[in-house]
Design brief:
The structure holds 2 protein chains of 2 kinds. Chain A is built from no helices and 11 strands. By secondary structure, chain A is mostly beta strands. In chain A, strands 2, 4, 5, 9, 10 and 11 form a 6-stranded mixed β-sheet that branches. A 5-stranded antiparallel β-sheet of chain A has the order 1-3-8-7-6, with no helix packed on it. Chain B has no helices and 11 strands. Chain B is globular and about 35 Å long. In chain B, a hairpin with a 2-residue loop joins strand 5 and strand 6. Chain B is mostly beta strands. Helices cover 0% and strands 50% of the residues of chain B. Classes of the chains: A mainly beta, B mainly beta. Chains A and B meet through strand 4, strand 5, strand 9 and strand 10 of A and strand 4, strand 5 and strand 10 of B.
Chain lengths: 110, 113
């Protein structure tokens, strides 16, 4: 079966840097995405990696190593509003079938 | 305004009573997908569609049906709902997959008694 693993929760202080890891085991791989979800709200897209390396978008960066089946989301200059759940998701067939991780709840403290 | 609209937002119903959750997008997106979200399980894909008249099963399709007769609409049908389908449901759409960001609707909270 397909599986993704990410930590269930992470705590950090305002202004700090935090890294959320995601390891995957899937039958195919076409890309790794990251989504943010605030309590009760709709998920919003953060980033996507199809090739190895780092993608940077403002305070958020995402990294992928296909040989290690591993990626991470890096959040810099943490703000209180970054407190949310973060999900990684792998697209594992060309048709658009994908699987999400169980989510990492990030708590940002003052 | 670009958006994905789901209806209803909340529904309490009884076992066995057929229901449909509608999903409509105004961005001319080709890809649409349904997910359910349960505590501790993240989002699980139910069905997805790459284009009109093309649908495929996700990870948890049992007990659900979908159709894609027009590009903008992708309804989720529960023919005979059961309590284990009580969940928060999200519809999403995008131009394609991969680096195309999925736009999610606001969610539909279903309670099956």
């Amino acid at each position: 079966g397909q599986s993704l693993e990410q930590p269930s929760e992470v705590t950090a202080v305002e202004g700090a840097i935090v890294q959320i890891n995601c390891t995957y085991q899937t039958s195919g791989f076409y890309g790794l995405s990251w989504y943010q979800q605030h309590d009760g709200g709709a998920p919003t897209f953060l980033s996507y990696n199809a090739l190895d390396g780092l993608e940077e978008t403002g305070r958020f960066s995402s990294f992928l190593s296909r040989s290690d089946s591993y990626g991470y989301l890096l959040l810099q200059e943490l703000q209180m509003k970054d407190s949310a759940s973060y999900f990684c998701a792998v697209i594992y067939n060309q048709g658009g079938k994908l699987i999400f991780g169980q989510g990492t709840e990030l708590s940002v403290k003052p | 305004e670009a958006q994905v609209t789901q209806n209803p937002r909340y529904l309490i119903t009884v076992t066995g009573k057929k229901l449909t959750v509608t999903c409509s997008q105004n961005m001319n997106h080709e890809y649409m997908s349904w997910y359910r979200q349960d505590p501790g399980l993240g989002l699980r894909q139910i069905y997805y569609s790459m284009n009109v008249e093309v649908t495929d099963k996700g990870d948890v399709p049992e007990g659900y049906k979908v159709s894609r007769k027009e590009k903008r609409n992708f309804p989720l049908i529960l023919e005979s709902p059961s309590p284990n389908q009580t969940s928060l449901y999200f519809c999403a759409s995008s131009w394609g997959v991969g680096n195309q960001p999925q736009h999610f609707g606001d969610g539909t909270r279903l309670s099956i008694l």
